[in-house]
Every structure is written in structure tokens, then in C-alpha cells.
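Per-record layout

source: Pseudovibrio exalbescens
name: Transcriptional regulator
length: 252
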Amino acid sequence: MTQRRLYQSIAEDLKNKIAEGEYPVGSKLPPERVIAQDFGISRTVVREAVIMLEIEGIVSVRKGSGIQVISTNTIQMDSGNSRTETALRLLLSEMEKAGPFEMLQARQMVECMIVELAAKNITNEDIAELEAIQLRAQHEDRARDSSWDRDFHIRLAEATGNSVLAVLVQLMWEGRSENPLWKNLHSHIEEKDLNSWCAEHQLIMDALIARDPASARKAMWAHIESTKEALYNASSALGDMYDEDPVASGAI
């Protein structure tokens, strides 16, 4: 079972328990650590499942109050599907539903290969445009707007000279931008991590300028590892709220 299907399965199980009255509206779900133990899963998966329930309007997470059940009705979101849905739409839809860590795993595998090819094929024009994005990143309010991050990775993929790879990376980023789980976690990422990403982009740039595929791959791998860590830290911060035991904290 994939990470995405696992957190969705856990969320569905919790929704069923709520619908059946085991956790009625007004009650609280067990703390994150208890849910993880009961299902025999990691706390990261529990966090993604609870975020999904929060987005659907079923639970509310507040520090000191734990995970409160507020509704048994799921908020219906427009999936954009139709009878004439193309394979492209299906692919983007899957990316929009993927767990954040699942998406990062895919990006790491794909973009590390892409940056190797880019280091072999990159032109001076490509380098100039990537440097312009880097310059913009250094002057933007990174806590507010990280479009430079997306632009850098998409432009880098275009530097491979392979249009299929460029479209694939763009699809991955479009899927990320529409992914509610990613949006939730990204809003909790600290500015220092965004600053670090900008510096890591420069290390990738240095390898590209040197036309060094091995160093470029190493720099990209390290960059996405750093992103994973920042995302985990953000989920841990949210996990502190999810893990609040109302009885132990004296909230009830």
C-alpha cells in the first residue's frame, strides 16, 4: 500500500468510527501517538490523515484541545473530473491527492536524473535565466511567496532540452500547488528553511555552471532531503497540536 493510500485508508477508518458514533460530534479523537499505536503506523501517516479530516471539515485541531470532532459531513470539493477526463487530467488529479512525503520521494527520484541531464545539456542562456530566478529569490519575501522555488525547478527541467521531462516536472509542481495537504504543511514552514532552499539552489547552480552531472545530482538530492526535513519539522509542529491530550493538559 502506498503512503498516499495508507493515510487515506486511516482517514476513512476514522471517518467511519465518527459516523458510527464511536467518536460523536463534540468528542475528541485519541492523541496522535495513540492512533499510531492502535493502527501500527507512523505518526507521520496519522498527521496526514488528520490533516485530511481537518480539510474536509470533520475535525478541528487546536493547541490544548486535541482533535475535536465537529461534523460527520464531509465538505465536497470539486475534483475537476468529467466523463471526458484525459490521462493528463488523471495524472494531475493523482498528484493533487498524493501525500506530501510521497510527492517528495517522486520528485527526488525524477529531479535527480533531470539535473544530471541538465548539467550535460545546459546552455549559457539557460544559466542566465536560472541566475535571474536566483536573484529574484534573494530579494523576495520568501516567507510570503516562494514562486521562485517552483520557477527554478521548472526552468531547470527545461534546460535538459527534453520537453517531456519539462512537462512532467511542471505537472508535479502544479499538482503540489493544488494539494491541500501540502498547502497546510507549507504554511507552517519556517522562513529559515526557505532561506536554506535558496542557498541550496545556488549549490545546484554551481554544479550546472561547472557542467558536473555527478555534483549536480548530489546537490539536488541534498536539497530535497532538506525539504523533507523542513516538511517533517512542520508536520511535527502540527503534530504537537494533534497530540495534545486534553486530560493531561488540563483542558478538560
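summary: The longest strand covers residues 59-62. Residues 213-242 form the longest helix (30 residues).
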